[in-house]
Specification:
alpha+beta, two-stranded antiparallel ribbon
């Protein structure tokens, strides 16, 4: 369990606490990104700005609950996969990447059945 302390603020992995010091959260996320890069062949070169920190915190909070679903929507190449990868790493979840294709008529194909078995 990772714990970071700075004055009155504390970050404890797996525990939801109100945070008054954004700099502490930024240090925690930067440390998690370094650990992720050490343990994965594909490293992520991320700049920790406020929006990224907020999105990682939101996804981590979502992953704290049982049977919760979420969808990140946005333009391509804006970091959604990186946010999910780092958040799953922080929460020690296994990241599963199903292949989904959307077609012009809004029907989609998926390999969900293959990886659910």
């Amino acid at each position: 369990m990772n714990v970071l302390k700075n004055g009155t603020d504390t970050i404890v992995e797996g525990v939801y606490l109100e945070l008054h010091n954004k700099e502490l959260l930024k240090k925690f996320i930067e440390k998690s990104i370094l650990e992720y890069n050490k343990s994965n062949p594909l490293s992520l070169n991320l700049i920790t700005f406020d929006c990224l920190i907020g999105k990682i915190a939101t996804v981590c909070r979502m992953l704290s609950f049982h049977n919760v679903h979420g969808m990140l929507v946005g333009e391509g190449a804006n970091g959604k996969k990186s946010v999910v990868a780092i958040s799953a790493f922080i929460k020690q979840n296994t990241l599963v990447k199903p292949h989904i294709e959307f077609h012009k008529n809004l029907e989609f194909e998926s390999n969900w059945n293959a990886w659910l078995q």
